[in-house]
Write a structure and sequence with these properties.
The complex is a heterodimer of chains A (170) and B (366). Chain A has four helices and nine strands. By secondary structure, chain A is α+β, with helices and mostly antiparallel strands. The N and C termini of chain A lie far apart (44 Å). By secondary structure, chain B is α/β, with parallel strands linked by helices. Chain B folds into two domains: 231 residues, FAD/NAD(P)-binding domain (3-Layer(bba) Sandwich); 127 residues, FAD/NAD(P)-binding domain (3-Layer(bba) Sandwich), CATH 3.50.50.60. Classes of the chains: A alpha+beta (170), B alpha/beta (366).
Chain lengths: 170, 366
């Protein structure tokens, strides 16, 4: 029973750690890697079929939870852009001495701009810290989903998963 | 032309898929739809679909709608819009009203019924106030008409419709104040709930709406906690500021045409209630009347398209355009795709319910 996910809407760290794709501490030592927060058996596999390195496997049945081979994952983020559930982001602990980098899917307007300071947020949408926008991309493969790269202080490495939505200009 | 080999009623994902498969086999197909635009619900589905490549996973609903319409056009399928079907019989006579005034009769040799489903409403004090609407209605407003129904929304129901529409209301610029779920656990896919959770939307499980407060329209919503026997717990009432209430409390198959055609029915609560009995080829108990999509049990657009293909292939076979062996081969391909969509924690219940419908058909034959 996935109590936290099914009662509160988002998975707990414990539920994530019990899922086969969630990285362990040492996996982050290699540089940027994909983090998949998909802990429920749903019929879906674009992460597997989009990965150019063959690092993600689901197999048959299609409801299997994804697994990642972190020796193959380069953190390119193609899976994060392909995931219909917006359940994948890329995290890089080695970004700089003080900062980590997260690249996450974002489907709200207005989009942030490079150089903006935004509010980095956690799984409940709660404010965690400040973040700085490094890159905003919209590729054909991401099919209208923007990919946002945001640098933020390393001490909040685990908690940050997204940014707070920006208010539309009145 | 008032005689057609195949008439498809409903130009949504199931109906268009059925028409396309039958037309590919060489059948001349007429599609009828009461709406002014084809596509059913696809053009308001701005999210990416799940599934695998063969189910068009990762493609957004409205893009799938466009692909189906292009295919329909390429195959020369006649789609008559603003055409309401008001009656059919077991001999495949169809009575239609065009543009709300001209009536006529169409004689078909086979029919695919793909009429879809309708949203359920539930009642509570204040439910008739302006601002209380179906979740699907609000989705039509924001994604088709680009009108925001309100700025502060309370969503009742946490199934996939409730959480997907909540997300799209956020995308459209509204605030979702609460998602209220009577059951102790959330209904929709975890990736959808996590997405709205990340946007800061609070979920209230074991809660329901006790009343909606407002003079001329919605001003606030009172929610209350439910105990283990679904009874309100006095003293747990909580007021949520809102100007809009969306009801995502399930769908019911639109089965009237199948009733009047004389189809046998069975009752499958997991799929929305009374549904026409159909066999593994989507044929009802009335010869050459096929069904596909939500009319045969409420699922989702991906399964509706597969069922539509199945109905189209088998209607073409019934009309002699596909031989038995080829029909079986093509049907099996579609069944494999359907089975993959109906597995796992969410799909298993629907798969078992579907098997009960097909078992009911076999019993009738015996």
């Amino acid at each position: 029973m996935k109590n936290c996910l099914k009662r509160t809407g988002c998975p707990s760290i414990g539920e994530l750690q019990n899922s086969p794709a969630f990285p362990k501490r040492e996996d982050y030592l290699k540089g940027p890697i994909a983090v998949i927060e998909c802990i429920e058996e749903i019929p879906c596999n674009p992460c597997e079929t989009s990965c150019p390195k063959g690092a993600i496997s689901i197999g048959k049945p299609i409801t299997n939870l994804p697994r990642i081979d972190f020796d193959k994952c380069s953190g390119c983020g193609i899976c994060a852009a392909a995931c219909p559930g917006l359940a994948i982001y890329v995290k890089d602990y080695s970004y700089s001495d003080e900062e980590a980098l997260i690249t996450f899917p974002y489907e709200y307007l207005p989009l942030p701009k490079v150089g903006d300071t935004v509010t980095a947020a956690g799984r409940r949408g709660q404010e965690i810290c400040r973040g700085k926008i490094i890159k905003v991309t919209q590729s054909k493969a991401s099919n209208r989903t923007a990919m946002i790269s945001m640098a933020y202080p390393k001490q909040f490495f685990d908690e940050v998963v997204t940014m707070k939505r920006l208010k539309a200009a009145e | 032309m008032n005689k057609v080999p195949l008439a498809v009623i409903g130009a949504g994902p199931a109906g268009l898929s059925a028409a396309i498969e039958a037309a590919k086999a060489g059948v001349k197909v007429l599609v009828l739809d009461e709406n002014s635009k084809p596509g059913g619900q696809l053009f308001k589905q701005i999210h990416k679909f799940f599934g695998s490549r063969e189910h068009k996973a990762g493609t957004r609903g409205f893009d799938i709608g466009t692909l189906l319409l292009e295919e329909t056009k390429r195959l020369g399928i006649d789609v008559r819009l603003n055409t309401e079907v008001c009656g059919i019989d077991k001999d495949k006579n169809i009575w239609v009203i065009r543009n709300g005034k001209e009536s006529s009769k169409i004689e078909a040799e086979a029919i695919v019924l793909a009429s879809g489903a309708t949203e359920n409403a539930i009642s509570f004090e204040g439910w008739t106030l302006p601002g209380v609407m179906g979740a699907g209605a609000s989705q039509t407003m924001i994604n088709v008409h680009r009108v925001l129904p309100g700025k502060k929304v309370v969503m009742l129901g946490s199934g996939n419709v409730g959480v997907i529409v909540s997300y799209q209301l956020l995308q459209a610029g509204a605030e979702v104040m609460a998602i209220v779920e009577a059951a102790p656990t959330l209904g929709g896919y975890g990736v959808h709930t996590a997405k709205v959770c990340r946007a800061g939307v609070p979920f209230y499980t074991s809660h329901t709406i006790s009343k909606v407060i407002g003079k001329n329209s919605v001003e606030a919503v009172e929610i209350v906690q439910l105990d283990s026997s679904w009874q309100p717990v006095p003293g747990t009432e909580k007021l949520v500021e809102a100007d809009t209430v969306c009801l995502a409390t399930g769908l019911t198959p639109l089965v009237e045409l199948a009733w009047i055609a004389g189809c046998e029915f069975c009752y499958i609560p997991e799929l929305g209630g009374h549904v026409p009995i159909h066999d593994a080829y989507m044929e009802t108990t009335v010869d050459r009347i096929f069904i596909a999509g939500d009319i045969s049990g409420v699922e989702e657009a991906s399964t509706a398209m597969e069922e539509g293909q199945l109905a189209g292939i088998n209607a073409a076979a019934a009309l002699g355009y596909i031989d038995g062996e080829e029909r079986n081969r093509l049907s099996e391909q579609v069944w494999n795709k359907l089975d993959s969509l109906r597995c796992g924690v969410f799909g298993e219940k629907r798969k078992l319910a579907k098997e009960r419908i097909i078992a009911a058909a076999k019993e009738l034959v015996v």
